[in-house]
């Protein structure tokens, strides 16, 4: 992941300083979202945002807080079942986009005779298995290599919150506290609240707890952090305030 | 064509459960409004209302036209609403949705039919010339409770508006520019406001299992998608109902409607005070060092 | 001041000779249009409505662009109710044509559609079916919305659509104008055109004999204190209308038994529900 001290921001069409582009003796350079390669050797940003590079893995991409989710292979997403057909569930990932397909057999232990019973309106936590620009994306709720769910599958009860795509990415970072600067969830957990969450890269967060008030507090904490782009200190203050209000 | 995603079953169940226990997603009380803000433009007759994430702009314009033949002594007063794709992709241009039709009918009934604006005062020469006042309502962002916010915007814009002064000498009608004569406000009779109650079924309270309807005020878009029915009550601060509309939906007890109407009166008084205060602030701001300030200084001496 | 109230105070009789709590003369008939799936004809005073029901049939997407207003039943899991109103050009004193996109009509359609959706048990048909209700106004003399709702209810019974109860509606007015705050004002039941033009009034639709309000429309300026009285009067009127509609349905049932259209045993089991 990115390990840069001073951040570089780019606008679409900007020229990228060649010193910033990582070069690695073995790995080929891999472009992430927001960049376009113009042959033979030009590299242009297509979105405005922060330029992030990983010299060790030879990666470069633009981190932006865009409004619309574009599926990419490997993304974890939370979708709503729109309707079911013979072999597929049609899943809505975001408003005004065509549905993604989720094969009925792409669940742990699913077989022709034993498939999950999902109805329209149910939530699923899934991984994008196929994403092409001109095709509807495809999802899976099972790891194709191990055959295990690995946490994916239907989400029952709880509440779904909409968050910005940038926030979703920050929450999904391996060390969300240090790299993503999100400490609300850790703080809430440290304050003694018991809850579970699932974050979808399509800008959705699912929160569940036995106590309704806990769900509400977690939801408010995260959405407020997102909307007001709070700093770590402000997040801690917010959590203290919410916990106080709750008691 | 892909449409707006409907709220999932989890959201429906959770919100309903929370509302039954008296909680809302944003931590408001059940009868609490979101942060309300009202700004006036540089021009007269522009009101910009923000209610939470809902934002609405109303603009008033006036022109001199010929009155309708069947109403020679009345001016013309129209309210047009536009829900453009800017507010939500669900709206299309030139294809009024049901929301838009109901909204424009409600505003029509609340403001126009209740005679909030004295249309007779808009008549210049009977049967020949009159003012045509037009309110254009633009919804910039839609996060629920369009009706209450729109009504507030329309009323505030009309009360803020100044039309050019006119005079009649013999047969000649003169319309003065703002430089020649200070524009004059419209002849405004009362300020109606809409309060929308959203119903979410009923819970039994007490030991005898008496059913009590649950309702919310100032719903967000998500809450609006989940409500079972709604009731909009328009009233002015004198306790005169201008319009009541409960367009179908799940039934509620008659007692609840009566309770709602008396609660609406309180809320209308709050809104009325809010608009009065904002208008006063604006006129104070406008007259800073202006003509009226000079005049009042002279009078004080 | 209004001629209605001025004469009313003298004898406590209204322009058409009714007392304050009297409904107008009503006539109802089921199955007036044999080719339809369900039909009814209803008169309330001089307001005359014919209602034709077609369906439930599979949703026709080409029809979704027509001027009908729709409302889904049982939270979208059931059939959709589509309502369209046509006012005959000869229905009023002055003959005029109305455009298809009259917002007032559209609002009434929406009110009727979502009102009926509250009582129709649409889940027995599935979400892809539609019940088309077309209402023809043959003559118009006040309480239009209320009559339309009652006629639609009656026709739905004829069509055999399952409902929890009749959706019945009635208007109520108040003899005081909005400016006068006199406490002596009487509520009036079931207004005709002349009274509607002079007095503040509301239309109330309730679910059968209960006091549950399904729809309520008030378009005139009236004191808040009047509301309760008007609503109570209208609710009483709704009960009267329900009894009347029930009578029409039972008479029709008896007639069918006499004619041998259905066997006696079937009738006993299906008509003794309450």
Topology of chain A as a string of helices (H) and strands (E): EEEEEEEEEEEEEHHEEHH
Radius of gyration of chain A: 20 Å
Tell me the series of helices and strands of chain C, N- to C-terminal.
Answer: HEEEEEHEHEEHEEEHH
**Helicity level of chain A:** 10-25%
Supply the number of structural domains of chain C.
Answer: 1
- End-to-end Cα distance of chain A, whole Å, is 39 Å
Would you tell me the overall average pLDDT of chain C? 83
**Pair with the biggest interface:** B-C, 36 and 41 residues
Task: Give the C-level CATH assignment of chain C.
Answer: Alpha Beta
Q: What is this entry, summarized?
A:
The complex is a heterotrimer of chains A (247), B (301) and C (274). Chain A is an alpha+beta fold.
Characterization of this structure:
The complex is a heterotrimer of chains A (247), B (301) and C (274). Chain A has 247 residues and is of the alpha+beta class. Chain A has helices spanning 165-172, 184-190, 212-227, 232-246, and strands spanning 8-10, 30-31, 35-38, 42-45, 49-54, 59-63, 76-84, 88-92, 100-103, 123-130, 138-140, 153-155, 159-162, 196-200, 204-208. Chain A has three domains: 8-63, OB fold (Dihydrolipoamide Acetyltransferase, E2P), CATH 2.40.50; 76-156, OB fold (Dihydrolipoamide Acetyltransferase, E2P) (Beta Barrel), CATH 2.40.50; 160-246, 2-Layer Sandwich (Ribosomal Protein S8, Chain: A, domain 1), CATH 3.30.1370.10. Chain A is built from four helices and 15 strands. In chain A, strand 14 (196-200) and strand 15 (204-208) form a beta hairpin. Chain B is elongated and about 75 Å long. With 301 residues, chain B is an alpha+beta fold. The model of chain B has no long low-confidence stretch (mean pLDDT 88). The longest helix of chain B has 33 residues, at 254-286. Chain C has a single domain, classed as GHMP Kinase, N-terminal domain (Ribosomal Protein S5, domain 2, 2-Layer Sandwich). Chain C has helices at 3-11, 103-117, 144-159, 193-198, 224-259, 264-271; strands at 26-30, 38-44, 47-58, 69-72, 80-87, 129-139, 167-174, 187-189, 201-207, 212-218, 222-223. In chain C, the strands form two sheets. A six-stranded mixed beta sheet of chain C has the order 1-2-3-6-5-4. A four-stranded antiparallel beta sheet of chain C has the order 8-7-9-10, with helices on both faces. In chain C, strand 4 and strand 5 (80-87) form a beta hairpin. The chains are: A alpha+beta (247), B alpha+beta (301), C alpha+beta (274). At the B-C interface, helix 2, strand 13, strand 14, strand 15 and helix 5 of B face helix 2, strand 9, strand 10, strand 11 and helix 5 of C.
